[in-house]
TrEMBL record:
One of its GO terms (cellular component) is plasma membrane. GO terms for molecular function: ATP binding. It is a multi-pass membrane protein. It comes from Caulobacter henricii. This is DUF983 domain-containing protein. It is found in: Cell membrane. Keywords: Membrane, Transmembrane, Transmembrane helix. The keyword Transmembrane helix applies. The chain crosses the membrane at residues 53-71, 77-96. The lineage of its organism: Bacteria, Pseudomonadati, Pseudomonadota, Alphaproteobacteria, Caulobacterales.
Length: 120
């Protein structure tokens, strides 16, 4: 079996251990185990790490775009909201799964779940 890049597998929503099974059970819910290799995925919890990064990225793009549109082209407020709110929402939702997959893959690649009290 060839070596799997855990970061690429996690970003695409596959098991970071084997690269074949699915990482997610729902939109953002981590599957309990990989259906292909049986690797236990439930102990890898990312918390709010991925959402924090995505809020900063999506909010930054949306805020910069809205401010640029307002000052450069003098768009009215209703047009700014009509354009930049869906862009920010779509960008945030579109990046959420790959970001969470990357966070889980980083934990698997660095064996973060195997650390205990004696290792600190």
């Amino acid at each position: 079996m060839a070596q799997v890049n855990p970061y690429l597998a996690g970003a695409t929503g596959h098991c970071p251990k084997c690269g074949e099974g699915f990482l997610f059970e729902g939109f953002l819910k981590i599957a309990p185990a990989c259906e292909a290799c049986g690797f236990e995925l439930s102990r890898h919890e990312t918390g709010d790490g991925a959402s924090t990064f995505i809020i900063l990225i999506g909010g930054g793009v949306g805020a910069f775009g809205a401010l640029f549109s307002m000052f450069a082209w003098h768009w009215p407020i209703w047009l700014l909201l009509l354009v930049w709110l869906p862009v920010t929402l779509g960008l945030s939702l579109g990046l959420m799964r790959p970001a969470k997959g990357l966070m889980v893959a980083a934990q698997v690649a660095n064996k973060a779940s195997e650390a205990g009290r004696r290792d600190v």
